[in-house]
Write a structure and sequence with these properties.
- The strands form two sheets. This protein has a two-stranded antiparallel sheet.
- The protein has two domains: 408 residues, MFS general substrate transporter like domains (Growth Hormone, Chain: A); 56 residues.
- The longest helix has 38 residues.
- α15 packs antiparallel against α16.
- The chain is built from 20 helices and four strands.
């Protein structure tokens, strides 16, 4: 089969080279969401973090990443996807360097927030570059299979790399490692990634951008605080920022309905495939984020794994997601994409149910490994078709918006799922301790924690099953007909000369 090429200033660029570059960047962004998790104890000692402030090493990144995704996606459509992609890489790489040299908690938290902003520019730009480089059909399916496998496995690799670097050298190298990778990607993307943008009106909806960014950041902040044992769902902070976030989002919707060139064209939600896929991603991400969180706590707190060993324990997740993504890319050619999607979610849910078998003395090979393997293959089978469904029939001039929406669903879904499941886990743990009738011994504490982890894994399985029900109920065959056949042709987009980059 001949390989299509992208024309740029008289040269032809192999689209698979473009895919490699954007996948490198996305891997770095997703990896950084978890790379510091196993390094937190070392960072706490090194910079004298308080227990209350330590969570903001993670939440600072999550907050700006989730808050600016829609703005980043639309900016790529309006100003050029390569431009925004490169800008995000520069911001992400420089802030990583600053974080590696951080001398105080404030310096590191601010640096992590800036990193999240860079990631919010990279992720939607990268996905929209793929969807505008590969026309709908077999090649886009294959490209998104690679993309999904790399993106989804980045979280698991983050645990491994973070643990290895922290244990062998220093926690600072969890940040320094991004600098050479970012520099290489910037240099190659400058020359090889095509710059595309929409034709016509390039008006900037400043008010809409401020409202949606503020609303999303407030919601993510409230969810992050709700997941904290010190706060909870009924704390004044959670209620206040939740209300502010909802109010800002309502104002945003009103603004978008009236503005001539809106940041988010609300009519895009009439695309049933896009709306349903985003709802499904919200549910799947909620389960996946919680799995990494609670399984990570289990192996380190209950089983006593070192940071590096904890990272190794999750390495099979990377391979499982890769296997599942490869199977999904082939399966959607032969099976209804809805069947592949629902099947992947059910398999992943089965893995979550298998995690309920954990005990204080569970072995890795007989309990944890089978559960993680089944779950990861199911996630790989899920992410590819969900991404395909979310981007099918979407016009090229809305590619960045659609990518931003999908990334936002994943981020908000992860935050929401973790907050809900953390609350369930803490309540279950506290209930177990109360029923003891005496002060808990060490083994009692571990048993109580496991009761909480189990209810969280059960809730994660339920979220995945609900995602399968959503897709099976609302997606029609006609909505996804172009995925396997490639019948839908991507509209032309304006190409910007190299000199504009």
């Amino acid at each position: 089969m001949a390989v299509t090429t992208t024309v740029r200033s008289g040269r032809t660029i192999n689209p698979w080279v473009v895919l490699t570059l954007v996948c490198m960047a996305q891997f770095m962004v997703i990896l950084d969401a978890t790379v510091v998790n196993v390094a937190l104890p070392s960072i706490k000692r090194g910079l004298s973090f308080s227990d209350a402030d330590l969570q903001w090493i993670v939440n600072g990144y999550t907050l700006t990443f989730g808050g600016f995704l829609l703005l980043g996606g639309r900016a790529g459509d309006l100003f050029g996807r390569q431009r925004i992609f490169l800008a995000g890489l520069v911001i992400f790489s420089l802030s990583s360097l600053v974080n590696g040299f951080a001398q105080s908690p404030t310096m590191l938290i601010v640096g992590r927030a800036v990193q999240g902003f860079g990631g919010a520019l990279i992720s939607p730009a990268a996905l929209s570059i793929i969807t505008t480089t590969f026309e709908e059909g077999a090649r886009r399916t294959k490209a998104l299979g690679v993309w999904s496998a790399i993106a989804a496995s980045g979280a698991a690799f983050g645990l491994l790399i973070g643990g290895a670097l922290t244990q062998a050298i220093s926690w600072r190298w969890a940040f320094f490692v991004n600098v050479p990778v970012g520099a290489i990607t910037i240099a190659l993307a400058w020359r090889l990634v095509p710059n595309s943008r929409v034709e016509g009106d390039r008006g900037v909806d400043v008010l809409g951008a401020v409202l949606v960014t503020g609303g999303l950041m407030s919601i993510v902040y409230a969810l992050a605080k709700a997941a904290s044992p010190q706060e909870g769902w009924t704390s004044p902070t959670v209620l206040l920022f939740g209300a502010i976030g909802l109010a800002l989002l309502v104002m945003f919707l009103v603004t978008e309905m009236r503005y001539r060139a809106p940041l988010v064209r609300l009519s895009i939600f009439r695309i049933r495939s896009l709306s349903t896929a985003n709802g499904a991603m919200l549910l799947v991400a909620g389960g996946m984020f919680a799995m990494f969180y609670f399984a990570g706590l289990y192996v380190q707190i209950v089983r006593g794994y070192s940071p590096f060993t904890a990272g190794l324990a999750f390495l099979p997740v990377c391979f499982g997601i890769g296997v599942g993504a490869g199977l999904a890319a082939q399966a959607v050619k032969r099976l209804d994409v809805r069947v592949v999607t629902c099947g992947g979610m059910i398999i992943a849910a089965t893995g979550f149910l298998l995690l309920q078998r954990i005990t204080v003395a569970s072995g890795y090979v007989d309990v944890l490994l089978p559960a993680l393997s089944v779950m990861s293959v199911g996630l790989g089978l899920t992410f590819v078709p969900v991404t395909l469904i979310a981007t099918t029939t979407v016009r090229a001039d809305d590619a960045g918006l659609a990518s931003g929406l999908l990334n936002t669903s994943q981020q908000v879904g992860g935050s929401l799922g973790l907050a809900i499941l953390a609350t369930l886990a803490v309540d279950q743990t506290n209930s177990y301790v109360r029923k003891l009738g005496h002060a808990p011994a060490v083994q009692d504490t571990f048993a109580a924690l496991i009761q909480g982890y189990r209810i969280a894994f059960l809730a994660g399985a339920i979220l995945l099953v609900l995602g399968a029900v959503l897709v099976g109920t609302f997606i029609r065959r006609a909505d996804v007909a172009g995925i396997a056949t490639g019948a839908a042709v991507a509209p032309d987009v304006e190409r910007i000369p190299d000199t504009a980059a």
